[in-house]
Amino acid sequence: FNTSFNLIFLLLLKYVFLHMRIFCVQELWNQGAGLLAACFIAIVPGYISRSVAGSFDNEGIAIFALQFTYYLWVKSVKTGSVFWTMCCCLSYFYMVSAWGGYVFIINLIPLHVFVLLLMQRYSKRVYIAYSTFYIVGLILSMQIPFVGFQPIRTSEHMAAAGVFALLQAYAFLQYLRDRLTKQEFQTLFFLGVSLAAGAVFLSVIYLTYTGYIAPWSGRFYSLWDTGYAKIHIPIIASVSEHQPTTWVSFFFDLHILVCTFPAGLWFCIKNINDERVFVALYAISAVYFAGVMVRLMLTLTPVVFVCMLSAIAFSNVFEHYLGDDMKRENPPVEDSSDEDDKRNPGNLYDKAGKVRKHVTEQEKTEEGLGPNIKSIVTMLMLMLLMMFAVHCTWVTSNAYSSPSVVLASYNHDGTRNILDDFREAYFWLRQNTDEHHARVMSWWDYGYQIAGMANRTTLVDNNTWNNSHIALVGKAMSSNETAAYKIMRSLDVDYVLIIFGGVIGYSGDDINKFLWMVRIAEGEHPKDIRESDYFTSQGEFRVDKAGSPTLLNCLMYKMSYYRFGEMQLDFRTPPGFDRTRNAEIGNKDIKFKHLEEAFTSEHWLVRIYKVKAPDNRETLDHKPRVTNIFPKQKYLSKKVVTILFIEFKKKLKLN
């Protein structure tokens, strides 16, 4: 009963989003497509990955705001109502307060208006909708503290301002067209557009040069130049969600929808209007951005694009192949001419004097497609939907239903093994370290988890706003112990936490992330850290005896493989065999001078080291005792002394 009640409660919470989905697709197409879209969004893995129970990320609530804003914008353009536009502004305000991805909205809506102007589909409805949205939405977004004056001082928002100015100029020209002759209007149009374009262009250049308008951030540059982040801002490229999306990821998150949404897009373009222009633009931009970054798959999956367009495609197929059956159930009423035709089948002309069709031709026209073809196509569509539901259920249960801090593996007999090393380590930190003064140094991937689950202060976290601080942590990890100790003492570090997967074969450990630490550190400290020092002469990154001496002596390597050389995991492998790298480590005699092992989890997945306090007295280096303080004296042997003594006695006798 409790399980059923919880399921019903969660469905009721999600009902708002599903019902809004029906309305949104209904505005674009019809009710049947809206119902299918609601079914798709309820189970599609691309959205489940961000909205699963226990997910506290911003995207969980931001996608609803994104979808609702688009729905209200379509409603505003369709009606030209100020009321719907104000509702759209309020939804945009909620989106700005929830997620930084609001920039996608403030660029896509102006693009929609700009394309409508190019297609000569300008109307008062578009003018009222966008003018109200830009002014009110701009003022509301500036009330969010972390946004502030960015809408008027950053390059990401300049496209919206430019389209707003262009729309006002276009509306003014439309006003003058009704009051001037054609020759006067063409002259004024040429001069006005040339002067306005030149003034806007020079103003943007001047404001950007003076620093009033900030340039694009690194993440936006990386959207257009995929190699920019790796060269200039490695911390952006180091995030796994910022890597390009593979085709496997598309199928894994969308399944059959990958193949059906182009058909839905074609139906929209075939029956184009102002609202469907927005869908087409969203399709082009979402596909591109989802291919550039894995993280932006979220913008592609649930919103206007894949689920809606796939629903439109399925809806049209079902209407086409099942429409004849619906007509057959409700046949048209026969008139008197049809009865006469049945009574006089030999008459070649009807009452209107036109040549009557043959009976077989009439039956063929009425029947349309054969019943076998309709049945086969309908069954194929239903089978695809069933396979889609099975795939979504499997992906949700196996890939998106486990928290990231609890790992699961399967034994040879199929039984599941739970690896709870993360929570074990965080519990140890919470119980055995000072709550108010302990500072933990780790890579930024684990900052939020340490702060939330262990309740301890970290140097860097997932916010990644301070690139120089993250680079300093990367420098400490990639330096030798003595140099790293100086950095850790300057940062008042008490504990160092690392992730090591060599025992269980976990590929997401810090050794596999180590090169990103080196690259980020090299960007801020190029004189001290060089990436080439961590590769062999053949350009290989190896952890065995052939590895670089700089790598084998760095702090990250020593903390990962401390006491690991004494462990033999299998009788078929030597001691110190790393299962993740499939190699025997090259440095097994690891000793620490400034660190000591504090905790190692059950499967060696999390290792914590304590930073030793400096000695009260500085230890002096032992030097060899100096024995030549006084000038050297000549010593005689016993034989020489005896000879001298005999000669001395002879001299005495002679005297």
From TrEMBL:
UniProt superkingdom: Eukaryota
Enzyme Commission no: 2.4.99.18
Chain spans, region Disordered: 329-350
Any single Gene Ontology cellular-component annotation: oligosaccharyltransferase complex
All copies of domain STT3/PglB/AglB core, residue ranges: 440-496
Cofactor: Mn(2+); Mg(2+)
Subunit organization: Component of the oligosaccharyltransferase (OST) complex. There are 2 OST complexes, OST-A and OST-B, which contain STT3A or STT3B as catalytic subunit, respectively. OST-A and OST-B contain common core subunits RPN1, RPN2, OST48, OST4, DAD1 and TMEM258, and OST-B contains either MAGT1 or TUSC3 as specific accessory subunit.
Protein name: Dolichyl-diphosphooligosaccharide--protein glycosyltransferase subunit STT3B
